[in-house]
Design brief:
438 residues, mainly beta, Jelly Rolls, nine-stranded antiparallel sheet, six-stranded antiparallel sheet, 2% helix, globular
Length: 438
């Protein structure tokens, strides 16, 4: 892939882009005859009658329509499961996973691409009712060679932790590094190459309403993630002949067919249903400049609303480098129990509430009403600290917060993956009650 890529700026914008001059029709979406002998095809990411502000669709002008394909057959990938019903009984305990292993890039090592390297860690909701999400990790050492994935069940939020992802989509190309994210719409074909070799990261498979920017409320017109910092691809097409293996996620199952042509044959497109990338370094972090620790909702990058206002199907939240300045305040997250369930991953550095045990490439789960908070080391340090302004620098964690309880997969609950000592990090929190305060 060409390392110098051009992008279009904005989230949810109406874009128009062409790889060949004159390929985009003017004044109509589907003329009787499209220029250059192309076919017009629409992809809709919302119901036709959705309100204008929420309507998502794009028109594609391609060399062959996507109906030109083979017959699908069942395809096995047992570690990619969907919905709460696919999991196992989950105890009301906080759970933590050590860094997930990455397949080595050595002679005779099996080639594992992005699809084969996906493993569901937790999930909730249900694909057919379009509620909830799955949280997966990918661990791969090979690029997708003439193999493409279409997820008809969900949009996919990709969060690389180790190694860049070069993503070909029907609408163009994205390159995404650790610290950046990519959001790929439901139903759009894509293929992933690994320019840095063995790679690892996280995926949110969102079955519910599409991710969007959160409302800002009292924050005002600025703050959090800015729409202009999301980047969409310009039109690009692959003209290499040959067959492709198409893998489709449909009804919680994988299906596969052999297609006689490339799926990446879109010469021009316009619309607002598009893949995007975002660099979390552009996030405008807000926090207290007086006292007390703000709710983590102040760090929301994207939200997938549910049918209950204020209670998200999923919020994607980050904890980036930031200043801590609050006075007479316990600065790390306090001890808490929440209605919302929280899945966390660590991209780099150290999370301020868990200096012990929570490592980059690992994960933790605190389900609805499961108590959690800073470990004993973090509590002692924060309680005794001199509260001068302090900057957290080498750190980047994220959280997927959902109104539904997360259910771990059988794969995730295996003893060699689950951190059996996690609860020990709170055992040092002794009873320090004094009847007469000092």
């Amino acid at each position: 892939m060409n390392q110098t890529l051009n992008y279009l700026s904005g989230f949810g914008n109406q874009f128009a882009t062409e790889a060949v001059a004159g390929a985009l029709p003017q004044g109509r979406n589907s003329p009787q005859r499209v220029a250059h002998g192309l076919y017009a095809e629409q992809i809709s990411g919302s119901a036709f009658t959705a309100p204008r502000a929420e309507n998502r669709r794009s028109w594609l002008y391609r060399r062959q329509p996507s109906v030109v394909t083979g017959r699908y057959q069942a395809c096995e990938q047992p570690l990619w499961t969907s919905g709460a019903a696919s999991g196992v009984a989950v105890p009301p305990d906080p759970l933590r996973w050590s860094p997930f292993p990455v397949p080595g890039d050595v002679p005779n090592n099996p080639a594992v691409d992005f699809i084969d390297g996906l493993s569901t860690v937790v999930s909730n909701g249900e694909v057919e009712s379009q509620t909830g999400l799955g949280v997966l990790v990918y661990a791969a050492n090979a690029s997708m060679d003439r193999r493409a994935l279409v997820n008809a069940d969900a949009e996919m939020l990709l969060v690389p932790q180790q190694g860049r992802l070069q993503i070909r989509t029907e609408l163009g190309r994205l390159e995404v590094s650790p610290g950046e994210i990519a959001l790929l719409p439901r139903g759009l074909a894509f293929a992933i190459a690994l320019p840095d070799g063995p790679s690892r990261g996280y995926v949110a498979e969102n079955y519910g309403s599409a991710f969007r920017l959160p409302e800002l409320g009292p924050i005002g017109s600025n703050g959090l993630a800015h729409a202009r910092d999301f980047l969409a691809p310009v039109a690009w097409f692959d003209d290499a002949p040959g067959e492709w293996d198409m893998v489709k996620r449909f009804g919680g199952k994988l299906w596969q067919c052999r297609q006689p042509n490339t799926p990446f044959n879109v010469v021009a497109w316009h619309g607002n249903l598009t893949p995007v990338k975002y660099d979390t370094a552009h996030f405008m972090t807000l926090g207290s400049i007086s006292v007390d620790h703000p709710d983590p909702s102040i760090f929301t990058v994207l939200t997938s609303p549910s049918d209950t206002p204020g209670t998200a199907n999923c919020d994607f939240v980050i904890f980036p480098p930031r200043w801590l300045v609050a006075e007479d305040t316990f600065r790390p997250p306090w001890f808490h129990r929440n209605l919302m369930s929280e899945f966390m991953g660590l991209i780099r550095g150290q999370y301020d509430a868990k200096p012990e045990g929570f490592k980059p490439g690992g994960a933790s789960l605190h389900n609805s009403m499961v108590p959690h908070g800073p470990d004993a080391e973090a509590f002692d340090k924060a309680s005794q600290a001199i509260l001068a302004p302090h900057k957290l620098t080498d750190t980047l964690a994220f959280m997927l917060e959902s109104r539904y309880r997360f259910v771990p997969s059988a794969w995730a609950m295996q003893p060699d993956r689950l951190d059996a000592t996690y609860a020990d990090c709170w055992q040092g929190l002794a009873d320090q009650f004094l009847r007469t305060p000092r």
